[in-house]
Design a protein that fits this description.
Layout lengths: L15 E5 L5 E5 L5 E2 L4 E10 L2 E7 L8 E2 L2 E3 L6 H13 L7 E9 L5 E11 L11 E8 L10 H13 L1
Parallel strand pairs: 4-9
Antiparallel strand pairs: 1-2, 2-3, 4-5, 4-7, 5-6, 5-10, 8-9
Length: about 170
């Protein structure tokens, strides 16, 4: 997999080089206009959909982590709130309209080729399982007991959030 990297300034097109800032953090700096290229993460959302003591996971149909299990969710689009993005992604991936999410936590993560992301996770507890269908970039949906989650869950940050959730129930 090729590593994601900025090489040119988005302001002037000049060549970027690395430099330590006053705190010791490595920054990309343009040699020509001196602009700093902050490598801010892209926001993502994910849903811990819980029914009794089971968690809904979706199997990824595409890279990265094709074939691994994942929480329903995805990237936040321009102009969306986190909750709007989550409602859209859940409907796209599992065919269910939902609202009323409760913030669960966040985790820094890495997407394909080293692209930084910030995952924001929400929980929704329900009393009966909805009819779900795999769609968009998902090829299967499945409910897993809290005691028998699969070992191949995509994204380290997501695994940390799920583990934290399970410790709290």
């Amino acid at each position: 997999m090729r590593r994601f990297a900025f090489r040119y300034c988005i302001q002037c097109g000049g060549r970027l080089h690395t430099r330590k800032d006053a705190r010791g953090a490595t920054r990309l700096l343009c040699r020509d206009c001196r602009a700093v290229e902050y490598q801010n993460p892209k926001p993502t959302v994910g849903l811990l959909l819980v029914c009794r003591r089971e968690l809904l996971l979706v199997r990824r149909a595409r890279a990265p982590f094709q074939g691994w299990w994942d929480l329903p969710g995805g990237f936040v689009e321009r102009g969306e709130s986190l909750e709007e993005a989550l409602a859209r992604e859940v409907e796209e991936e599992i065919g269910v309209r939902m609202k009323g999410f409760v913030f669960s936590g966040s985790a820094a993560d890495v997407y394909a080729a080293g692209e930084p992301t910030l995952g924001v996770y929400f929980t929704k507890r329900i009393t009966s399982k909805p009819d779900t269908r795999a769609a968009d970039d998902v090829d299967e949906t499945r409910w897993f007991s809290f005691l028998a989650l699969p070992s191949r869950i995509a994204f380290a940050g997501q695994r940390r959030v799920i583990a934290h959730f399970l410790r709290s129930v």
